[in-house]
Amino acid sequence: MQDEQPFKISVSQNALDSLAQKLAIATLPAPAPVTYTDSALDSEDWTYGVPRPTLERLLIHWRTQFLPRWHEHQAVLNALPQFTRSIEVDGHGVFTAHYVHKQSTHNPKGAIPLLFLHGWPGHFNEVSKLLPFLTTPPANASYPSFHVVAPSLPGFGFSSAPTKTGFAVAQYAEFSHKLMLSLGYTEYVVQGGDWGSFIAHRLAYLYGPKYVKAWHSNFPAGRQPTLTRNPLLYLQHAVTPYSAKEKKGLQMMQWFWSEGQGYFAIQSTMPQTLSYALADSPVGLLAWIYEKLVKWTDGYEWGDDEVLTWISVYLFSASGPETTVRIYYEIAHQGNMDEFARLWSPIPLGLSFFPHELVGGPRTWARTMGNVVFESEHNKGGHFAAYEQPLALADDLRAMFGKGGKAFGVVKGKDGY
Amino acid sequence: MAGHLDTLAKKLALATLPCPAPTTYTDSEDAQDWTYGVPRTTLERLVHYWRTSLLPNWREHEQTLNALPQFTRSIEVDGHGVFTAHYVHKKSEDRRRNAIPLLFLHGWPGHFNEASKLLPLLTAPPASSDYPAFDVVVPSLPGFGFSSAPTKTGFALPQYAEFAHKLMLSLGYDEYVVQGGDWGRHIGLGLAYTYPKHVRAWHTNYPRSAGPPQLLRNPLLWLQHLVTPYSAAERKGLDRMQFFTNEGTGYSAIQATMPQTLSYALTDSPVGLLAWIYEKLVFWSDAYDWGDDEVLQWVSIYLFSASGPATSARIYYEIKHSGRSKELINIWSPVPLGLSYFPKELTPVPKTWARTVGNVVFEADHDKGGHFAAHEVPHALADDLRKMFGKGGKAYGVVKGKDGY
């Protein structure tokens, strides 16, 4: 295995020129049909998807402001310390693993190693706001500190992409686990949302409790308890009425399955057919991802530069933006998702419930995910919790792993203090 | 149009292709491995051809598309304003005939020119034969081809039917018959149900049904279904339906929920649009040998359409969100109905299922052909229509004074 190399994103002039040329001749679609909502502005009517006035405004900003000053935005992405190294995955060859690695500022020996896993359309830089709370807690508080590793999953960001079929959850888990081992972290904890939560769940099952000591998820997508598998939860679910938050969560789930899973359906069946459009059209890619940034967050005020920086991680990724969507195909074809979801690990699990998450269903369902020792309810925040509500998420991790927390001291000799 | 062509040339010159899909463990070459969707090698070849051959010779291809006589006129749809209706209108070559007025309805990703091979067989049957002649009308549905697009939400099946019906009336056809596949089948049923005094019979090559016959709704068919085993062909059809349902409906899911989000990519990238449609042309046809010119002319109708290539996708959204439309898709109509069964249709249903939809007076089985029957196997489809509407056929003479002879 190759030694670690420091990495900085450095988009080629060719790529920037190509982008400029495409933006200059971008063709926009007709506006969506008018609906009978009271929203006065077209730009607020998201019934059919991203409204044209909104996308057009972003396009102009991209072309006239953002792209000409790309190097400033690239510097923002390069603020976190990044590296690459080789990681081999059984049956799939050697990958270039791209990752953020930031150690605790004041506590190199005792900080808890934490693996942060993104999903789709997330990326390594989603951790940027959360990270300082973990690596550099205020000196006067009694919060634990962490070493944080945030990889780009294979096919995303600046990691290389799988070239053989069948690179599914177990492979993403193997990749992540081997990365942690290669960094010298033989015992660690995991935090994940979206696919990151599925991968964390598998890491717990495959490599816990020997290596993975505890995990936390902000994507509590459990399964309905069954009498034979989860008798206590089943009973609890049968007799406890849903709380107001749970009812709202069920509504979100219903909306998602009825109106919000079109992207999931195409990405999990014919990702290559979709990929021509995503690879060839920056505007198309922008709309495809931006829709999620808005619909999946809880009133988060996205700045234009923020959005375009986010999209740029996809556009300029090592293997192209389209390789990211294949994770849906691979996981959908790996076998019975229900069975996989029910794999159970005894290691401590923490759950954070954010109201605007896509899968915020009954708490009894979420508890089937594992050995839940910590739960936290929030009044604000959506799918991209680490990015929208970094302090809230950090506080949850502090409560779970800090002194007095249910997962305090899970990693031998590294309790964060 | 010149601006369009220049832009297209520029976009093709700048086109960025994705990396190839992951290799699977089949023995086929990459170009034949469609597991993840359109293979890169195939698309790359088509893009190259588009850029270096078809586009520089565009005027020839435009002429091919202009071979059929086309017109526009205004059609108003209640609550949705006035539309520019673009349509082909070809009357029987032999003007002495009392030709049967036939409305041909396309679907997605079909278009008006799908009828081009079928049309002469209907309007100019051989003089020595005993086949009926038809006057054929082929509109571009609103949002497709060179018709204008709806600008208000809610333009669903009743509206598409109203549009098509008013077009026929405006052409002087008070009584007519309908032939349709894909959305054309749903609109055809909507027409038959809504305008039974005008739609005297209809035919579809997409004999779709929501499910098997139900005891209360179709007791005789239910009984028949109970006691008759599926034929080998029907079992194969059900397998195909399962495959389509599991692997082939992604496009429909996004088009029916967030069509506008999708439309940015399809509008901005000709290569993306090509892949999106070409996949259907291949998957949905029965090993049809698509020529490059053929494919690119087909996609060009979408690319150069009046309201842009992606407005057509909204029909999925509108129908999904219209309770009335979903009702109409499964409604029963007494208007005489003809069914043609093609083996590579998307959801080939057993006959007992298909018959639940209407007053079936004609059925025909085929060994070859898929979703785009009029384009793939025009003779087979024409023969079915001749049998159904010709002398001795169950729908002979349905249109007063216009029996086709």
UniProtKB/TrEMBL annotation, chain A:
GO MF annotation: an example: epoxide hydrolase activity
Signal peptide bounds: none
Entry annotated with the keyword Hydrolase: yes
Keywords: Aromatic hydrocarbons catabolism, Hydrolase
GO annotation, biological process: epoxide metabolic process
Gene3D superfamilies: alpha/beta hydrolase (3.40.50.1820)
Residues the record marks as active site: D194 (nucleophile), Y328 (proton donor), H383 (proton acceptor)
Name by which UniProt lists this protein: Epoxide hydrolase N-terminal domain-containing protein
TrEMBL record, chain B:
InterPro entries to which the protein is assigned, alphabetical: AB_hydrolase_fold, Epox_hydrolase-like, Epoxide_hydro_N, Epoxide_hydrolase
Residues of the active site: D182, Y316, H371
Record carries keyword Hydrolase: yes
GO biological process, one term: epoxide metabolic process
Coiled coil regions in record: none
MF terms in GO: epoxide hydrolase activity
Highest taxon in the source lineage: Eukaryota
Gene3D superfamilies noted in UniProt: alpha/beta hydrolase (3.40.50.1820)
Keywords: Aromatic hydrocarbons catabolism, Hydrolase
A Pfam family recorded for this sequence: EHN
Acetylation found in the keyword field: no
Residue ranges of domain Epoxide hydrolase N-terminal in the record: 4-114
Similarity-based family: Belongs to the peptidase S33 family.
Stated name of the protein: Epoxide hydrolase N-terminal domain-containing protein
